[in-house]
Amino acid sequence: MKMYKCCIFDLDGTLINSIKAIAYSCNLTLRKYNLGPIDEDTYKILIGDGYKKLIERALIHCGDTNLENYEDALITYMEYFKIHCMHEVKAYDGIYDMLDFLKNNNIKIAVLSNKPHAQTVENVDKIFGCGYFDRIAGEKSNIKRKPNPEGAIITANDLDVNPCECLYIGDTNTDMKTGISAGMDSVGVTWGYRDRKELEDFNPKYVIDHPSEIVDIIKSTVLVSN
């Protein structure tokens, strides 16, 4: 029977609901060019592949199909996001209990996000506390962003676990592709920004509706404490 030793989590839409911070920062950016605003539900479709792709998609959505404002908008967005990345950000219900269970049972926990690294660390540290996770990694220039599996594999190596001993947990097709390509069992979560069909279309090992189901998965594979 497979024994999982590590859980690697996507951040936005998986551990935390940060859609308001992203939407607020991006709409401030769009306003500079007399574009937008875009509603939060639309942002749930636009995000997931890093801020550069977010800005590209947002500009096109608002009619800037030639991306005339793209380069300036990248700079403007990051200026706003550095200030507002914690705007109404909160952990999803059940996340704290699930993470505590993993830590109490010696399951290593990590975050791998396409959000810029500094803001990834800020979100995680302010929501969960400094040093709570074994590893935190956001987007960095020297590591290919998801769905490339490089970041997930580096995370497993740094934590001295085999990729096949890891669960990769996320809320988008990008996450499902990342985990599978890294040789990990992928877990799609339905409480995030995408629907069950999108997740199932990419054949994850599990699709779950509540963080407590991660506890169930671990309990089914390892001997854990009460």
TrEMBL record:
Keyword Hydrolase found: yes
One example of a Gene Ontology biological process annotation: DNA repair
Keyword line: Hydrolase
Gene Ontology CC terms, in alphabetical order: cytosol
Domain of life: Bacteria
Spans traversing the lipid bilayer: none
KW Hydrolase (keyword) present: yes
GO molecular function, one term: phosphoglycolate phosphatase activity
Protein name: HAD-super hydrolase
Species per Swiss-Prot/TrEMBL record: Romboutsia ilealis
